[in-house]
Specification:
Blueprint lengths: L3 E12 L4 E7 L12 E5 L10 E9 L4 E7 L3 H7 L6 E8 L13 E6 L4 H12 L5 E6 L8 H5 L3 E6 L6 E2 L7 H4 L4 E5 L2 H14 L2 E5 L15 E4 L2 E4 H4 L2 E3 L6
Length: 256
């Protein structure tokens, strides 16, 4: 898939809470096609401490509006600078990068999309594309508390939303792998993204249950092209660059 380096204009900024911001970006020409699970590399300007681009998952792509959404967690100097962007600002992005999730083979395929923290980001666009094919995904989203859950209204447009919080402030109390939907429903395939301990637990559940599972890894990806080797992951096929061979992997390829 062809990669582009584009100066995108900020057309929307939504501060979801004190840590997370949703940036909506567009261009005067049609944006390239993108797959759920792919990411962009963002250049952070006016930040002397930020030398490398920052990898950000594609949260949503609205083809009709020619609009790309990026869900940003303001946790470092670079992402804090991105969180301060305003409508009309420009953001230079290389996109689309990496490989995406596997789309359902039939509309009847039952998919469970499991996310935690900012790892929910790629699951929204994936859910939308699944719904476009006539299937209805189930989202299982986890967070520490209700205030940390992101984009619930958006997720609800495309499928059933199940929630866990560690403090029990919304949904079922506990971790995603404790949710009752895992006992009451049978799924054909699972896709997950979020903190590694969560993904390890989800992968363990999938293996135990004999369910195919893909995980979107969040290794540090400095170049996005497989050149710098920052994001290498040990796999059954040797060391692979997550930015080029992933970020989405079938868990059978991972040494988890």
């Amino acid at each position: 898939m062809k990669k582009s380096c584009i100066d995108l204009r900020v057309v929307g900024v939504e501060h979801l809470n004190e840590k997370y911001v949703l940036l909506k970006l567009t261009d005067s020409t049609p944006l390239p096609a993108m797959m759920p699970g792919q990411f962009v590399e963002v250049r952070v300007d006016d930040s002397p401490q930020t030398f490398l681009r920052r990898p950000i998952s594609i949260n949503f792509f609205d083809e009709a509006r020619n609009e790309l959404w990026l869900l940003v967690a303001a946790i470092g100097e670079g992402t804090r600078r991105m969180a301060r962007l305003k409508v009309g600002d420009m953001l230079n992005c290389v996109l689309p990068l990496g490989n995406g999730f596997t789309m359902p083979a039939t509309p009847g395929e039952r998919l469970l999309l499991v996310g935690g923290g900012v790892g929910v980001a790629p699951l929204l666009y994936f859910g939308k594309k699944i719904r476009d094919l006539g299937a209805c995904p189930t989202f299982l989203l986890g967070a520490r508390s209700a205030r940390d859950l992101l984009e619930l209204d958006y997720f609800a447009k495309y499928g059933e939303v199940c929630v866990t919080t560690e403090d029990g402030s919304l949904g079922e109390k506990g971790f995603v792998t404790n949710h009752s939907v895992l006992d009451s429903r049978r799924f054909d395939r699972i896709a997950t993204c979020g903190p590694k301990p969560m993904m390890l637990a989800v992968a363990g559940y999938a293996r135990q249950s004999g369910i195919e599972c893909e995980a979107s890894l969040e290794n540090m990806m400095a170049c996005g092209l497989g050149a710098c080797l920052c994001c290498v992951e040990k796999t059954t096929e040797g060391n692979l660059c997550v930015c080029k061979e992933g970020p989405v992997f079938n868990i059978r390829r991972l040494l988890w």
